[in-house]
Amino acid sequence: MEKAPGSPSVRGSYPQKTAGILSSQYGINLFLAGLVLTFAWAVHAVGISKSHLLSYLITLMLVQLLWMLWYLCRSCTQRRLIREKDTHAGARWLKCGITLFAVITLILDSFKIGYYVDFSNCLSAAEGIFPVTHAIHTILQVYFLWCHAKDIIQSFKTLERFGVIHSVFTNLLLWTNGVLTESKHQLNEHKERLITLGFGNITIVLDDHAPQCNCTTTTLCSIFSQGIYYLYPFNIEYHILASTMLYVLWKNIGRKVEHHQQHKTPFKFHGITVGMIFGLIVLISTIAKVVVYLIQIGRSKNKSELALTMFYLHAISVLALMCTAGIVALLIYRLEDRSLDNSKNPARKLDAELLVGTAAGSWLLSWGSILAIICAQAHPKYTWYNLPYSILVIVEKYIQNLFIIESIHRKEEKVNDDIKTLRIVTISRGSTLSLTPSYKEIYNGRATGDEGELPYLLNGSICARENDAAKEEASQANCPAMHSAPELSFYSRNSVANHKRRILKNIAAFLFLCNLSLWIPPAFGCRPEYDNGLEEIVFGFEPWIIVVNLAMPFSIFYRMHSAASLFEVNCKT
Fold it and tell me: How far apart are CA 381 and CA 305, in angstroms?
């Protein structure tokens, strides 16, 4: 029955819709103001210093801290109330991942505090307050996400919308600040390598934000300053994960959910040995490649070219294997007749949008490299490897996105209408007895002690299959069974389905480790887009560096988000 236009429920939806629009506009303006301030500091705008940017970020974090404390206190006073939960949001493995990144972020904050102490004579107070506030913010936010990431808020909805969206864009600004700081450091290292290699045709000015005073303890200052930049990739991933989890919480405010049981899907190593072995080989070889690359690049022209050649050949091999694995998985899906789950799910929708949106970053870099190879007049030998590498980056992400998005939208396997129950017919005292456990019990292995085996009924007792081979043969000899054609057909289909499922789990495990492997090089400074040189000659140094600095953070995030999604696919398959 449709509700009348003037009914209370319809009228009540208008203020909430307005609150959603107002809160989103508030968050966007909050973010844009911080983005302009960050940009002004980055380009050394007159009258804008780092202390202004940090003061703005500190204010945002303090406001979020007050809101989280208020929410936690209100939740404690209403502990006895039954709260609705979104079972798809805030998975345990996701919480564990964000906790790991948060711990490393706390180490980063401690390094920043030590750095401030050593340079306290010439650094502003904001640079000392920021890491302390950020550490407190990190601890409370992780606790908040562990306890309330699944909440579906149904009270104080207007206020909560503003509080949650404030938290989302606060984390996005902290992510932007981390990306910019890390990118400036990488750019300075790249410029220093160009100076070493003697590129005189490029105007190189180091973007120096270093303190204008001496350090009190030189050794500690060196450890802190170098250690900070190696920890930034984890800090960047922490904030983007936190913002996505909070965004799902914001989307769930006031949402009506269908009450159905959500089956837990724990991660199991059983059956994915092949995928894990090949994935670990890729991971170990990638770590070795990054170490060699960082040692060799910039030492001399010959060593740099060898390092770039090694990078491209390794990446081409890995990407080709990933494309093959993805195509096999998609072919298996095409052979199966299973519908997709199109029900409303904010977490799943966000995952799919992030996969496609962040893939655009590396696609932009790849098309830039392809165009540079086509237009360049001179082609050093190592630059030709960049062509298949760039093409494979585009194709691999295309295939992988299809596989992941289809995997997270696939419905669980349903019971065949032709086989509602399985009959086990045996002879007992000259009479026929039937034992008819449900399909689901046998399929899940609960009707028997051993998966895939049928119990045999003789003389009123069930003869279970023993582990010992001799007992097994004796049991089968003493317990004759007559299986009907539908039963044999079911077990044949079940065996094929199990083989397909095992192949898909191995593919998901392999791609999971491959994406972790491909996250490592750009996150820790192995970026041939900087060192190749061909793109800088075609597009110009400054324009290409701007493109790389804008696109690279999305490319790095894509790999980590893909790894997280593939972990979920492995658990679900």
Answer: 9
Let me know: does 346 contact 353? Beta carbons within 8 Å.
no
- Token digits of residue 403: 């596989």
Beta bridge partners of 201: none
Hey, where are the domains in the chain? 15-201+212-255, 270-411+495-572
Distances (CA, A) of 102 to 129, 136, 145, 198, 237: 18, 11, 12, 41, 9
Helix or strand or coil: residue 200?
coil
How far from each other are the two terminal CA atoms of the chain, in whole angstroms?
A: 39
Which among 57, 76, 243 is positioned nearest to 149, based on CA atoms?
Answer: 243
CA pair distance 554, 282, nearest whole angstrom: 22
Kindly give the confidence (pLDDT) of every residue in the chain, 573 residues in length, as a single tens digit, with 9 standing for 90 and above: 444 445 444 455 556 678 778 888 999 999 999 999 988 888 788 888 888 999 999 999 999 999 999 988 888 887 666 567 776 676 777 888 899 999 999 999 999 998 888 877 878 899 899 999 999 999 999 999 998 888 887 777 788 889 999 999 999 999 999 888 887 777 777 777 766 655 555 555 555 556 667 776 777 777 887 788 788 888 988 998 899 889 888 888 877 766 544 455 555 556 678 889 999 999 999 999 999 998 888 777 788 888 899 999 999 999 999 999 999 999 988 887 666 766 777 777 888 888 888 899 899 999 999 998 888 887 778 888 999 999 999 999 999 999 998 888 776 655 444 444 444 444 344 444 444 444 444 344 444 444 343 344 334 443 344 444 444 444 444 444 445 555 555 555 567 677 878 888 899 999 999 999 999 998 887 888 888 878 888 888 778 887 888 888 888 889 988 988 888 888 776
Burial label for 403, CB within 10 Å (0-12, 13-18, 19+), is: buried
Determine the Cα angle at 443 with ends 437 and 444, to 5°: 100
In 3D, which of 531, 556, 565, 562 has the Cα closest to residue 187? 531
> Are 340 and 406 spatial neighbours (Cβ–Cβ below 8 Å)?
yes
For residue 184, what are its two tokens? 């400036």
What are the residues whose beta carbons fall under 8 Å from the beta carbon of 306, sequence distance 6 or more? Answer: 296
d(CA 472, CA 120): 77
Which residues, listed in sequence order, are joined to residue 410 by a DSSP beta bridge? 340
Note the pTM of the prediction, 2 decimals: 0.73
Cα R_g (the chain), whole angstroms = 29
Q: Quick one: how far is CA 266 from the chain centroid?
A: 18
Residue 362 and residue 370: Cα distance in Å, rounded? 12
Q: Closest Cα partner for 289 from 558, 562, 515, 525? A: 525
Tokens of 503: 């192949």
CB 437 within 8 A of CB 447: yes
